[in-house]
Recover the amino acids of this structure.
């Protein structure tokens, strides 16, 4: 699919059923593989990243059956499928969540495994998870702080109080998963609240996890019980269409049954602050485990905003498309406190600035973010996805926002959208009318 051509959109209108949430799917598979019995889940994410988690879990001995309708049957340790050392390195592909969460889960077992990934994942920092897991009692060896990473579990894990220094749901989750095999309660203190999917799912699995008003998470170690769950749609995938529709008065999109986890909805707060008309209708079809609902958005004349502080972890994955949208807003949009963007699937700060400039946008790079000036009449451009799925989709939104009559854009390397959203371009075509 290399070199996908995306024409300007003349109209955006439609209703989308977004595929299952990637973050929740990773956790559902991992907990299902750890559970004392057989678990079930529906609406599992079709993302390549989630397939990486499934393959690693199978290599560790769990049973993971996924059908074409994205229903999963998970045979955990209680079905005679105890976790065992894998024969070769576990390939986490492009997925940081796979590598970091599995490191924690492996630490809870008396086994050793090597976690490896593609060139992008091998560049991403792993000491941030290796350090805390060592404090918890696991043996972890990285290569210059990166993958391949060897994790040797030496349960019982040491209970006690731990501080997560980076605001990262992945690190917190790795610590909680390891903590399942602790000899006493594990308390985790986050520097800033992050998505709490792991805590919610652990409760579904019968594990006592509480979060205090001070943000202190307490986990009572225990055995993971089998569960059943319908996974809501992925708001981070929906965000591309929400941002696109937000940009022009008269354009609209409705995304049905997406996660409304408080740690994920920062993007809705930003869209509202920019002036878009966002309507959320709650549903309860994730069995009450995860808040979930329909998000409808209508475009409007937008204004620039500041995105910083505690809002950043709540919209970290949506910042690329919000940066694109900022080019359509009146005034300056400033994104700060977001240095984490430099260690995602690519250096998203440097590459966003480079790509936005190719579309004709005036923007400036900062160590921890970027400033975008709007409104800008975008010009069609040839841009590179740099192996980063969210950049590829952000560029597709930018290409759609080129005014009617402007040039079509070409996105090189756009096949990487499969990392989180294999049917992205089909869904884009379904809600846009090309000019
Ligand atoms: C994720 C957490 C975030 C996010 C990533 C998925 C998760 O990363 O960027 O796409 O599922 O826990 P960090 O926790 O490292 O910020």
């Amino acid at each position: 699919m290399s070199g996908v051509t995306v024409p300007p959109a003349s109209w955006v209108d439609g209703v989308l059923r977004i595929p299952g949430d990637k973050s929740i799917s990773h956790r559902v598979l991992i907990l299902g593989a750890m559970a004392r019995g057989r678990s079930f889940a529906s609406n599992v994410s079709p993302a390549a990243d989630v397939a990486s988690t499934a393959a690693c879990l199978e290599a560790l001995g769990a049973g993971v059956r996924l059908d074409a309708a994205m229903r999963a049957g998970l045979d955990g340790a209680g079905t005679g499928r105890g976790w065992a050392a894998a024969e070769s390195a576990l390939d986490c592909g492009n997925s940081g969540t796979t590598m970091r969460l599995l490191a924690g889960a492996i630490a809870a077992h008396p086994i050793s495994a090597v976690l490896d990934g593609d060139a992008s994942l091998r560049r991403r920092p792993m000491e941030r998870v290796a350090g805390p897991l060592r404090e918890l009692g696991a043996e972890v060896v990285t290569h210059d702080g990166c993958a391949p990473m060897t994790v040797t579990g030496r349960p019982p894990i040491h209970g006690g109080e731990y501080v997560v220094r980076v605001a990262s749901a992945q690190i917190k989750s790795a610590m909680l998963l390891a903590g399942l095999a602790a000899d006493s309660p594990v308390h985790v203190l986050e520097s800033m609240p992050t998505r709490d999917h792991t805590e919610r799912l652990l409760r579904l699995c019968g594990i006592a996890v509480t979060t205090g008003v001070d943000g202190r998470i307490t986990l009572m170690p225990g055995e993971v019980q089998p569960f059943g769950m319908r996974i809501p749609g992925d708001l981070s995938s929906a965000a591309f269409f929400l941002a696109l529709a937000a940009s022009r008065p008269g354009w609209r999109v409705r995304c049905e049954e997406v996660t409304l986890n408080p740690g994920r909805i920062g993007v809705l707060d930003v869209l509202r602050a920019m002036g878009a008309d966002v309507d959320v209708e709650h549903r309860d079809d994730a069995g009450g485990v995860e808040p979930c609902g329909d998000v409808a958005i209508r475009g409007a004349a937008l204004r620039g905003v500041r995105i910083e502080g505690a809002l950043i972890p709540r919209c970290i994955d949506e910042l690329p498309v919000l940066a694109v949208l900022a080019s359509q807003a009146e005034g300056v949009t400033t994104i700060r406190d977001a240095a984490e963007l430099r260690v995602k699937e690519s250096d998203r700060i440097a590459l966003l600035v480079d790509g936005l400039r190719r579309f004709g946008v005036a923007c400036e790079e900062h160590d921890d973010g970027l400033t975008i000036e709007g409104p800008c009449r975008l010009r069609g451009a040839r841009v590179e996805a740099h192996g980063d799925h969210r950049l590829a989709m952000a560029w597709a939104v930018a290409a759609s926002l080129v005014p009617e009559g402007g040039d079509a854009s070409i996105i090189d390397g756009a096949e990487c959208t499969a990392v989180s959203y294999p049917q992205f371009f089909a869904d884009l075509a379904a809600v846009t009318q090309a000019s």
